[in-house]
TrEMBL record, chains A, B, C, D, E, F:
GO molecular function: cyclic pyranopterin monophosphate synthase activity
Binding positions (substrate): 77-79, 113-114
Top-level taxon in the UniProt lineage: Bacteria
InterPro entries cross-referenced by the UniProt entry: MoaC, MoaC_bact/euk, MoaC_sf, MoCo_biosynth_MoaA/MoaC, Mopterin_CF_biosynth-C_dom
Name used for this protein in its record: Cyclic pyranopterin monophosphate synthase
Species, as recorded: Actinomarinicola tropica
Amino acid sequence: MSDHGLTHLDPLGRARMVDVTPKEPSHRRALARARVFMQPETTSLVARGALSKGDVLSVARVAGIQAAKRASDLIPLCHPLLIGSVLVNFRIEDSYVEVEAQVETVDRTGVEMEAMTACSVAALTIYDMCKSVDRSMVIGDITLWEKTGGRSGTYRRAVEGDGTDPT
Amino acid sequence: MSDHGLTHLDPLGRARMVDVTPKEPSHRRALARARVFMQPETTSLVARGALSKGDVLSVARVAGIQAAKRASDLIPLCHPLLIGSVLVNFRIEDSYVEVEAQVETVDRTGVEMEAMTACSVAALTIYDMCKSVDRSMVIGDITLWEKTGGRSGTYRRAVEGDGTDPT
Amino acid sequence: MSDHGLTHLDPLGRARMVDVTPKEPSHRRALARARVFMQPETTSLVARGALSKGDVLSVARVAGIQAAKRASDLIPLCHPLLIGSVLVNFRIEDSYVEVEAQVETVDRTGVEMEAMTACSVAALTIYDMCKSVDRSMVIGDITLWEKTGGRSGTYRRAVEGDGTDPT
Amino acid sequence: MSDHGLTHLDPLGRARMVDVTPKEPSHRRALARARVFMQPETTSLVARGALSKGDVLSVARVAGIQAAKRASDLIPLCHPLLIGSVLVNFRIEDSYVEVEAQVETVDRTGVEMEAMTACSVAALTIYDMCKSVDRSMVIGDITLWEKTGGRSGTYRRAVEGDGTDPT
Amino acid sequence: MSDHGLTHLDPLGRARMVDVTPKEPSHRRALARARVFMQPETTSLVARGALSKGDVLSVARVAGIQAAKRASDLIPLCHPLLIGSVLVNFRIEDSYVEVEAQVETVDRTGVEMEAMTACSVAALTIYDMCKSVDRSMVIGDITLWEKTGGRSGTYRRAVEGDGTDPT
Amino acid sequence: MSDHGLTHLDPLGRARMVDVTPKEPSHRRALARARVFMQPETTSLVARGALSKGDVLSVARVAGIQAAKRASDLIPLCHPLLIGSVLVNFRIEDSYVEVEAQVETVDRTGVEMEAMTACSVAALTIYDMCKSVDRSMVIGDITLWEKTGGRSGTYRRAVEGDGTDPT
């Protein structure tokens, strides 16, 4: 893969699914996060659910796990792969709910898009379940935090405060 | 729908798909936006593609349109409906690409989730196609800007500067 | 529809999707149930989960709701329709977990298959989540209990004996 | 995997997809069965079809095979895998039609859920195609009969009469 | 719809799903056909199957019916709609198998793409099932033969020459 | 696999998914083509789009790539596999648009059906986007041109003029 251009376009600018067949399968992991910003009253409704029956976050967790398995069906040039594990967890703060998704596989290509898709769909599910009480919610900060395995090696997102994190 | 609680949970806190059968079908529209924040070098690569063959944005547009049709398959408590039209467009700024999705239908339930899902998946597709050159991209500002039709009437997101927009 | 033969086969015995276009849309409802028979130790593990975080049943509920929306994609001659509501609930007894699904719509065709599919997939999900502790589980008693709306009117399953076991 | 608890829940009771990446791929096979109980007149209608054009069972066979490939899409914590073969067959008795599904793969995880799902969806398809003549049908006895391969080795369901089979 | 341009592109040449919400639902029907050209030995193998158990054509029929329901999921700018009926039939000639699909609905948009997709996927299924004996098969003559309903009224394909070959 | 019969039917003529588990994964490639025959005015509309924004062909390319990933979901007895790369390209002639799809994988089974499905769905997408100006289009000449890898070795379709190509 070139460092100098968009590998999903061929030299004539046409979309293509990059060939991964020359690569060997290896263990790969990716960690992504997203936040659903909302009114403090809304986070507290979610939190109360989390303490009793937990259904907003339970439903969002299932939606995120299922979406990880469908990333290549949703994103046109994303390679299909067999997910080995998915974890989707949540952290509730005053003004947002944070979603974290970790995906692992043994395959020829990485699982960033699976982790990003899991976060996005879990966040959309939270939005859907809370929109009757708070229509001003915003989903943001969807980004890759860590990636290991594969030829490009380990990537870790620079932490807040060093100027590269827009959150 | 009650203003006082999460309508997707029943009184015992269990997830449910709200009954829309008593409603009459009516014309509904929703407009949502998302942004993919990236290095200026990356936006200019996208823009160059946009000027010649346009494939990053063409692929993302198709992905967004297809995702709008699958919103209820991705989001557990979202009602299935028949989309009457979808438009997905883009605006390229120095530090981000903005996605805008507008969805219309004649149905018993609104199309916010369809528009939000179209934006999210179009943004994920841009991320996927650009990640080989810029791993620090962040998807954010996914939110509903306008909604018309249905019992709750018209909703317009307050514009930036009046204190309700967290971006 | 004829009472005298299999309407999903034409006079030459070939599979067909029966034409529902001459019918008018009307309100329809169906109620189905299934049971997952298991060791008492297993039901008590499920019950403990149900009391604290509830995840076996929460996951099964989401799986059942999602499956209801996909009935026509799974069952070849089943008509697609737009589900207006789905409820999936559970009852834990000593030797089984009972799943109940109720589906409503306003459409040209009934929702029996949607309710039956929701029960089946919720039961399969319970089986999947409990199989590491109890491989001898059996899913059974999947049947339609009630159906209203449509030309054939209301159907209620006859209660046999004490009314709890339809087999 | 622990024998002592539900491996699909983490220690805090949250749903997770168990990590199979440390396992090596190996040959695995599973055999499951289901029964659709119906009036003798209904089994004889199915049987007559089976003798001429066979469409009820042909359609159910295709539905079962397709469903085996979608097990992980239907069952939230089920791992995706690549099915190497599926056979779906039927046996017609006086009061029921029995479905048998056998699935094989070379993968890191077993194919029980694929075989169980194939049986369930084939049975639902038979139900759908016969429901115009017999609304009282019941689907039952969906269970795993045999499983080979993987760390836990061979499992064979105890035959009727020794007290472990509820049929 | 304009006669003067591609309605699926907006004035700037960008893909869009045409808005059908202003239309009223009405009864619509479409009839399409396709042919799988093959060696006479291959058609006779298919025909023999058709006479005994009929599985090549039974499987292809189910595949075509299922594909009709997924047309809008496969074809990006195709509107989702609820199919009211699908018939898929076959005619075996010396050098080809002909597939015919008829689709009906009551909706705001036509069912040409559903009928064309049913034919295409049924033909691909025949190809898949026969390719081990005849790799030189060619699928062709996929075209719309008739269309009724909707604002544009009835369309019937002009018969060229002797009326059997539309190419 | 036998050369003497349809391997997708068992000795009793029942549909089955052939067992590929005894095979070793190896690199495989397939190349297929299809043509959409249309009026010269229509090809020139497509070509003009191709020169400016390219959206008919861009949309068809994405549809073809996505369809390659879903071949086993559409074609009942087709094995699921993980696609390693897909290229979909086009050639515009006076009276037709030619689609070419090349698919590669490292797996136990070939990718002919993936390449054929990509061509078919890309062709259907072109048909859908052009049908408002030209209803007489015909999709044809869908065939396999090359196949490498696997036990049966390399296959190349005989070129036009030697009597084996029916186009």
